[in-house]
Amino acid sequence: MYIAQFSISTLNNLYEISGVEVGQHFYWQIGSFQVHAQVLITSWIVIAILLSLALLATRDLQTIPLSGQNFVEYVLEFIRDLTRTQIGEEEYRPWVPFIGTMFLFIFVSNWSGALLPWRIFELPHGELAAPTNDINTTVALALLTSIAYFYAGLHKKGLNYFSKYIQPTPVLLPINILEDFTKPLSLSFRLFGNILADELVVAVLISLVPLVIPIPMMFLGLFTSAIQALIFATLAAAYIGESLEGHH
User: Fold this and answer.
1) What does the domain layout of the chain look like in residue ranges?
2) SS (H, E, C) 95-142
3) N or C: which end of the chain has fewer CB within 10 A?
4) Tens of pLDDT, residues 20-64
5) Lowest mean pLDDT among 16-20, 114-118, 233-237
6) Closest by CA position to 75, among listed 87, 86, 67
């Protein structure tokens, strides 16, 4: 009973966290729902960039790859190696699209916050920013990861998957259940906190010292943004691999 109450309380807290706001925001009213328009606009732009790059690079595939096709194949091989390392040789292939989508979306979203001049576009309220600069986006990505590793475990083992919660001893049942709630929390807050902090630091430095000093910080921000995308994708693949192999 206590565990069920704790689980419901944790889900309610996640829902309340998704409503956290800093400053003003631009909303669309769709029926009786308010939609966070800033995040949707920037997310659609990121998706459009990814689709455009994929179509341009693969529209004329060659046996001997040229520069664009060679780059896409390199990225695909990198994602395949990452997925294979975390999930295992036998079962990694079906999960390459999911891990690749996560990595590329977060990577392009993070870099868009540093490279694209979002603030030149005026909105009735608020301003545009990287999609991962919003807690709603990172929580959604973390929940998708949770759904993925639950699906992986249940698809392979059926209801026997839940036996991992009482291994190696039933005494650890509350801790093992708590672990599944802390995973999405840590994924979402790590990504959101790092991206928000990086953009705030760059914004403060630009306001104080407009020239020279912000430039190295912007390059550092690009590096840390790429690392955050890699960390998220690696952890997502590791969680899926853990569900497929059993409790570690």
Assistant:
1) 74-246
2) HHHHHHHHHHHHHHHHHHHHHCCHHHCCCCCCCCCCHHHCHHHHHHHH
3) N
4) 555 556 666 777 777 777 888 889 999 999 999 888 877 877 777
5) 16-20
6) 67
- Which DSSP string do the residues of 191-235 spell out, in sequence order? HHHHHHHHHHHHHHHHHH--SSTHHHHHHHHHHHHHHHHHHHHHH
Mean pLDDT of the chain: 80
pLDDT at 177: 86
Say how many C-beta atoms besides its own lie within 10 A of residue 199's C-beta: 19
Nearest-Å Rg of the Cα atoms of the chain is 20
The single-letter code of the amino acid at 58 is T
CA dist 126 to 38, 90, 114, 192, Å? 8, 48, 18, 18
How high is the pLDDT of residue 97? 93
Strand, helix or coil at 34?
Answer: strand
Q: How many residues does the chain have?
A: 248
pTM of the shown model: 0.81
Is there a contact between 135 and 112 (Cβ–Cβ < 8 Å)?
no
Contact 113, 133 (CB under 8 A): yes
pLDDT at 85 over 80: yes
